[in-house]
């Protein structure tokens, strides 16, 4: 676990002191690494990081940031839970709008007291720029009045508004995802202009500057996996420039899910939903191609964003008919794929009495702040696809989950604090 912070000035004498739980011994003191974030030849800020030796479970870490002999900040967080512990998490997407709705949803998320927060893409609007984080993200989740990120770890899936802006000539502070997040670097390794990563656009000097700012996070950090308690998480880049029909990438997904075999719960998170009943973004079905791998890997739930409402499928299995038809923009950039096929739906599972689903459940939780999509479809069931069993677009909302070794509870909560629906899954 790392502690990260930013300053406008280059401060050389930062240290971090921390204690584990109620240990009364002298705090452990760690040195701090720093990096200047340079945009267009000018230092935009300084980013500091201190890695704490917290490869232990079930403990509370109290930490303090010191400047010389003065304490400037202090907080605490919990380390990774034991496998047999109850875990509570929140998942929501399409959040970084800089509006009052985002603030209200954020306050409700804080009240849930999750141990970890997951964002299913579109972390910050409109283009994932450095200055957009300052206006549309940090003020809502990490201030003196709202010190959420200083106590609860966040992890994120990159969305289109985070990674699709790649022209440094036009947007010199683009791709801030690679500057501000610190996530596992265990994703597939491919170069630019491959099945996984498009080419970065810009002058040689701008690209050199970006590569130095991003360090070893680019481009590998867009896909990763980790475990938390008795759960395994696989996070994917679902942007249309990724060709998930590529055999190397599919093999990587399969191998990652094999690592999950000793965990009760297997979750996948990416931005673009493969199964979506909204008129908005319905054609972006490119992630359907991975459904058979999710089924083989015994994935329990797939979390998505992108579509600004809440949707849930029946537990389902899907057999794609080939790789689908590529959809392109006027400039011949890939916008997505339409993938037809055969789905098998488990309509016996109800989450109340029948708690053992046959197949993954796909959840769209993209109502975290941006304007809602297709409100009228909420009560128009004739407009839903056959795989959809819940559709809620009348109010913004987020997903709260809790699990132990045997049972998973999923609850959708709207901006008024009302429960939209709740369901359970049990292991045999």
UniProtKB/TrEMBL annotation:
From the UniProt record, which GO molecular function terms apply?
hydrolase activity
Read off the Pfam families from this record: Metallophos, Metallophos_C
Q: Gene3D superfamilies per the record?
A: 3.60.21.10
Note the superkingdom of the native organism. Bacteria
Q: Which InterPro entries match?
A: Calcineurin-like_PHP, Metallo-depent_PP-like, PAPs_C
Annotated Calcineurin-like phosphoesterase domain residues: 89-310
**Purple acid phosphatase C-terminal domain residues:** 359-422
Q: What is this protein called?
A: Calcineurin-like phosphoesterase domain-containing protein
What organism does the record attribute this protein to? Emticicia aquatilis
């Amino acid at each position: 676990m790392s502690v990260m912070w930013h300053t406008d000035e280059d401060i050389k004498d930062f240290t971090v002191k921390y204690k584990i739980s109620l240990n009364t011994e002298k705090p452990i003191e760690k040195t701090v690494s720093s990096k200047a974030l340079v945009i267009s030849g000018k230092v935009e800020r300084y980013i500091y990081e201190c890695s704490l030796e917290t490869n232990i479970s079930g403990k509370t870490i109290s930490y303090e940031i010191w400047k010389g002999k003065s304490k400037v900040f202090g907080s605490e967080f919990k380390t990774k839970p034991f496998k047999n512990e109850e875990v509570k998490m929140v998942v929501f997407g399409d959040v970084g709008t800089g509006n009052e709705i985002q603030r209200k949803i954020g306050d409700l998320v804080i009240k849930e007291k999750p141990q970890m927060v997951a964002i299913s893409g579109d972390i910050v609007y409109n283009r994932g720029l450095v200055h957009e984080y300052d206006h549309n993200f940090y003020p809502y989740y990490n201030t003196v009045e709202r010190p959420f990120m200083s106590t609860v770890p966040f992890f994120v899936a990159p969305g289109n508004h985070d990674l699709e802006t790649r022209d440094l000539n036009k947007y010199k502070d683009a791709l801030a995802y690679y500057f501000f997040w610190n996530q596992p670097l265990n994703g597939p390794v491919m170069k630019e202009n491959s099945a996984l990563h498009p080419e970065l656009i810009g002058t040689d000097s701008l690209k050199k500057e970006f590569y130095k700012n991003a360090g070893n996070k680019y481009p590998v950090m867009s896909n990763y996996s980790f475990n938390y308690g008795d759960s395994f998480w696989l996070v994917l880049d679902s942007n249309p420039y990724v060709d998930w029909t590529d055999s190397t990438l599919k093999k990587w997904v399969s191998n990652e899910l094999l690592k999950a075999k000793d965990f009760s719960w297997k979750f996948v998170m990416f931005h673009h939903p493969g199964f979506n009943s909204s008129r908005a973004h319905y054609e972006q079905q490119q992630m359907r191609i991975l459904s058979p791998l999710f089924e083989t890997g015994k994935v329990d739930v797939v979390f998505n964003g992108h579509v600004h409402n809440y949707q849930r499928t029946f537990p389902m299995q899907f057999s794609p008919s080939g790789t689908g038809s590529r959809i392109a923009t006027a400039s011949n950039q890939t916008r997505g794929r339409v993938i037809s096929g055969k789905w098998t739906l488990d309509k016996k599972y109800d989450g109340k009495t029948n708690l053992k689903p046959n197949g993954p459940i796909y959840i769209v939780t993209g109502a975290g702040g941006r304007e809602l999509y297709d409100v009228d479809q909420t009560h128009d069931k004739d407009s839903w696809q056959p795989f959809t069993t819940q559709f809620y677009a009348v109010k913004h909302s987020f997903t709260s989950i809790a699990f132990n070794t045997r049972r998973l509870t999923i609850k959708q909560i709207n901006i008024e604090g009302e429960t939209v629906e709740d369901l359970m899954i049990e292991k045999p």
